[in-house]
Every structure is written in structure tokens, then in C-alpha cells.
Fold these 2 entries.
Entry 1:
Amino acid sequence: MSVTSRNLQLYNSLSGKKEKFEPLHENNVGMYVCGPTLYSEPHMGNMRTFINFDLIYRYLLHLGFNVKYVRNITDAGHITNSAGHEEDSIGKAARLEQMQSLEIVYKYNVKFQELQRIYNLLPPSIEPTATGHIQEQIEIIEQILNNGYGYAVNGSVYFDTKKYMQDFNYGILSGRKVDELENETRNLNAQDEKRFFADFALWKKANPDDMQIWRSPWGNGNPGWHIECTAMSTKYLGKHFDIHGGGMDLKFPHHEDEIAQSCGSFGCNPAKYWMHANMLNVNGQKMSKSFGNYFLPKEIIEGTTNLFKKAYPANVLRFFMMQAHYRSTLDFTETALDAAEKGFSRLTDGLNLIEKLNTAENSSFDVQSIVSSFYEAMNDDFNAPILIANLFDAVKQINLINDGNATINKADKDLLETEMKSFVFNVLGLEIASSNNDSKLKPVMELVLDLRQQARTNKDWTTSDKIRDGLAAAGIVVKDGKEGTTWS
RNA sequence: GGUCUCAUGGCCGAGCGGCUAGGCACCGGUCUGCAAAACCGUCUACAGCAGUUCGAAUCUGCUUGAGACCUCCA
């Protein structure tokens, strides 16, 4: 779409307000999103975040921006507990599954790539891995040390939060005040190497049983939890880029520490706009491994979770998630999913109908304003729920035209068709599955329905109903419409 | 314990000072041999109590309830 429709407002977590989106470099947008840690298969909650940023990516592309979208893959061990048990999550998973760490990361990456295809995510411009950027991470740590915002102890390196706070605002994103944090801190480990409780690891000395170890100026070890994102975003997007995104739960400490690392090494906040996608809830609680209320994106489309009775297609799930704003939590419930499934079919029916519509001299409704409403919705901080509501307004008009209760002219019809399809397919990323394309089944069905039609013409209801019931038992639904019988 | 967020009709969810989305369900209708489907129409909600205002779901305060973060987490 033309540059004139670019009146995009987005919510910046940094300011806590909606702001006009003005990219740093005119037509080019740099966007970094924190990707998955591949020590297990991403669950549905993880997918929601990636789907939401896919929506954002797609709409920026739709507006004609040249977007460089970087989403990392964390394949280096996260040290999970700074107070004691020095076990990294990837190493732990590898031990449990008796695999090498790279083997396990590779295994889950294959699954993740498959999920992206199933859920129709556009591939990012690049998906860099943490293990591929150890050298870059080390270099940034060195810069932080040179600038005096870090210190090495015993083979590990920590970020010096106290020193940093003299020059910068630690807590700028999360709104946390360090002196408040101090009071909250539970029992600091006496042997802790950190000078200050709020300091965090940039480099962690290796343990004998670590599965991943790299050499560094401070000895063998592995990178801290936050440095990889700083290294990779800087490498591919520069020291200051447009959008940094991720899940709400990464705001603190992960993103706060990324800002500290960037300021500490380059003197500037890495991103102009920080965007956070909200969580997926099940039973009113955040979907999470530790709560055990999670299911996998594959399970729900295969109908193998015990949370839901039936299976849902990926496009229905995507549609369901698009009906909630990315900054709101969303509850997964069976009735809500069933409602989404029906709603989605209403939308696709309308979309299939539009090309068959007869045109008239004039349009009985304002097509241009409906189309504008699509843009207005998305320009308002990517408000997909409103976009969908507006698409349903269009569907209503399409149905009215189809029933002869409204009219549309040729130019309006072409405009509406183009824009609706563009928003549904390209922006919302929804695909309409055409199920009755089986080349062998099709002639068989034609024959069967022909026989049934004969029976119906002869008022042989017993035979016609027998055919209908038999097909229903085989999972094929027959619908007698005005213009003949269809099946699916 | 600290910080913060949220409470919308039967359900899911937008809206965030006046025009009171949308989907699903329900109910009524059209169509139909029947059924299903499809389509049309109906359905006025904002946790409670005060306050600000000509006017509040939307702003302020309090109460109650739920959740998130503070520890790996999308």
C-alpha cells in the first residue's frame, strides 16, 4: 500500500504510551525479537508471541516498509540459578534425553521450523544462533569492561550495576528501582561473587560437567543470559535500531539488562520502540512449563491434548489468537475455540463468495470507508480484533449483495476483494484450506451425489437420507443449498 | 513481602469521557421433502461503593477478586 496510508501508531513499552511510528531510516525498519530457547519444543504460549510478531512483521511489510526481521535462537546454555545450582537448561535437557547439547538443540529446531510452517509464520530475515556468535559476545563484554561497567572475578564477569547507575538509568524499561529491589531480595548467597545483588553475569566460569564450554579472555566458560541478544541485534541491526520485541515476561530482567549492556558498551539504548506481547493463559493462569498447564502447538491441531476434546486446524487457532489484541492476555477455552472455528468459517465463506458476486451500477454502501477501516484498525497499534470486526462488516455486506438486498459496482467489488484478501491472507496470515481437492475422491463424490439427487427427484427419501447419513458417518458433510448440493 | 496490571452481557473478546465493536451461543424468521448448513433479525453488559463532570465502562479514591514480575520463562 502507498506511503500515504502509513499513519502507524504503536505502543512503546519504554514510554508507556502509543507513539507515532517513525523509522530511524525512512523506508527501512530493523526489528529484533527474542526467539525460543530450544531445550524443548516450544509450547502454545511461545507460539502466540511469535505469531503476534509475525502479524506485526506482516503489517509493516504490507505498508511497504523494507523490514529486516531478526529473531534469534538460543542454543547456548542459560545458567538458571545464580545462587547455587549451576545447571544450564540446555545441558539439563540433554542429560535427561541422553543427547549431546547441539543434538538436542538441532532436534527442537527442526520441530520449531516445522511449527512455523504449520502456523504460517513468515521466516525472519535471519535466525542467528547464540553459539554462532560467541566471539561477538566476548567482544561486547570486553567493551563493557573497558568502559568500567563490569568486573571479572574468578573466571566470571559481572555487570557492575552500581557503577552503571551513576551514568544511566537502570530500570528505565521495567520501572524498577534498585533500592526497592534490594529490600525484596531474598537471602543472598554468602559465597556470591557479585559485588552487588543487582549485578548480573556476563560470562560464567565453566563447571566441570558443563556440556558447552568456550574459551574466553577470562578462561573457559559460557556467556551470561542476556548478552547473546545484545551481540546479535548489534551485529545484524546496528547499535540502535527500530523495534525490539519479545514476551512480556522478558521485560525484566532480560530486556532491562540488554539495555544496560548496550548503554554500557555503546552508550545507547538499542531500540527506539520496545514492544511486548502478552501471555497466553489456560485456566486463568499463564501457560508455563512450571505450572504444567501447557500444551504443544502440534498437539492441539492433532487433538492429542487432554485439555480439549477435539482437534483445531492451525488457521483456526491463528484466527482465534488474532481476535485478541497482542497486548492483552488471552484465555484458551474450548467454547472460545469452537466459537472461533465457526466465526472463521463465516469469514472464509464470505471471502469465497465475493468473486461470484454480481455487480451493479452503484454500490449501496461505502466500500471505501470499509477498506479504510481496515487500515485504521491496524494503524492503531496493530489492532487485529478491530480489523476482524471490520472484515465481518464487509462479510455482512457481501451476504446482503448475494441475497439481492444490497448492490456493489465493479470498481468497488475489485477494491473490496483485493483489500479483504490482502488483509486476511497477507496481514493476518490466515490460509483457507481447500479440502475437496482430492483428485480421486472428487469424481466419486460427484457420482454419489448424483445418485442421491436422483433419489431426491423421485422423492425416495429413504435412499437419499441413507446416502447422506452414510457420508456423515464417513466424516463428509452434505449441504443442500439453493444452487445444488455441496460437500466438505 | 515489594512493584505492576487487569476486572466488560451465557462464553471469547474490542473500546478507554458523549456516537454504547465483532464473533459464538440463545431466541425469532427466510430457505428446505426432512434435516443440516447458509443468510437475515433480536438480545444493551461494563466487580462493588463513593467522587470529578452537563455527561463515565472509560478519570480519581477506597473495597473486593484475579493475574504477572521480582528465579529460567514468549
Entry 2:
Amino acid sequence: MAGRNLVGPEADALDLGTVFRALADENRRSVMTELAADRSDGERGCNSFDLPISKQTQTHHFRVLREAGLIDEIDYGNRKGIRLRRADVEKRFPGLLALLGAGPSAGTSPH
Amino acid sequence: MAGRNLVGPEADALDLGTVFRALADENRRSVMTELAADRSDGERGCNSFDLPISKQTQTHHFRVLREAGLIDEIDYGNRKGIRLRRADVEKRFPGLLALLGAGPSAGTSPH
DNA sequence: CTTCAGGTACGATGCAAGTCGTACCTGAAG
DNA sequence: CTTCAGGTACGACTTGCATCGTACCTGAAG
């Protein structure tokens, strides 16, 4: 299990309240939605998400996601990698990631 | 469709961020967990939930749940009824209500 | 070495939200 | 009518949190 030098909670320890609070924020949810949509689950750069906020705030948001147990952060010193903890999240809260795709009203009459 | 004199958003208008924010609170989530667990979906009294908070705060929380589109509130003047909008929630966010049952670490080694 | 971009640490700020106190409304029961 | 319990309205208080400014660290490239 390489790539978890910045660790969050174990899979069984994920708290639903913490997770919901993490996903309540627009910016964090957009990150998670992108990650959940990419089925390859590859490691992504921190700034590969187009977030309209400062660096410091991005650091804060990624920390919240990590402490909620939703992502791993891999520290390379002057660069950071992000990876979705899909297996752990799915095991603990099956179906949660699928909900992220239902963000904007999409299930209704695609014309 | 009787019993919606205090109305929330339409089923298609439910917002994921609003819903997550509503479910992030411990007290509101306990209410929703109870409602989701009762498959009869009967109308319940407001004080049938054992919430360790004042009346005013309960009023506030039920309002938040209603405005998120998760419940209906039926006003009887000096009494109020609560009913889960199960069909609407399931249609918009399928599987969300099932997640509420996974609150405390329950899916792990039931011995 | 210096330079530079990516990230973090710390503090400050502004706003949203959970909580309660006081006062008031509503309908049912005496 | 009065009384009483369930609920609401308004306001105040406090905490949490998203955001940013400044300063600093880290590793790679000149």
C-alpha cells in the first residue's frame, strides 16, 4: 500500500457526519466528483482541478478531504499527489460516490 | 398529494450540496436515520424524536430538513407532523437513504 | 550558490449556522 | 372564559468554517 505518507482514518473509521460535512462544500464536492468520474483512479496533481480559490484554501480543502478519509495525499516535497480512496469509501458507504454524479438535476427528462 | 401545506422544493430541484449540509448535522441526521429505517413511512409527531435540544432549535432543524426537500411538515396549528419524502429523495439521489443506516461502523465483522 | 513554482503554517476576517431566552400564537381541555 | 402544552418568531450569542495575506519551506532548474 504505497502512497499514504499523509494518512487519514482507516476505512472502518470513516464517519458519516464528517463525510457529509466534507462533501457539503461546493469546491470539495467538485474535486470529488471529478475523482469519482475517473474510473482509472490514477494519481492526480493538486492543481489539475480548476478551483477558483487561492493556494492556501486549496491546501485546506484537500486536508479536509483527507481527514474525512475520502482521498490520499502523497507528498513529494514541492509537489503533491491526490488519489481517491474508492475502495475504502465504497466499502464503508456503498453508493456514495455514485451520488456525486447526480449533482445538477440530471435524472430528469434528458429531452 | 395531501399533507404539504409547508412546502419544500420539488423533487427535481433537490440540491446535493443543500442535502449534504442538512445531513451533516448530528441531530438532523438522527431524525433522518429514524425516518429512513421506518419503512411504513407513516406521519410522525415532531417530539417523537428524542432530541437533546430545545424546542426552538428543533423547529430550526425541521425547517432545514424541509427546505432541503427531505421531509414534509404538516401544520395542525398547535401540533405538527413529519413525513419522509422517500420517493422524491430516492428518485433524485438513489441510495442516499440507505447510507444513513451505515452511520456507526456497522459493516465490519459482525463477529 | 540563486531563482522560481508548488505547498504549507499561522493569523485575521467575514459569514453561515447551531443554540437558547423571551415573547407570542394556536387549538384542545376544563 | 382560563389554562396549558406544542410550535413559532425574533434576537442574541458563540462556534465553526471558507477565504485570503504574509511569510516560510521544499525540491528542481539555471
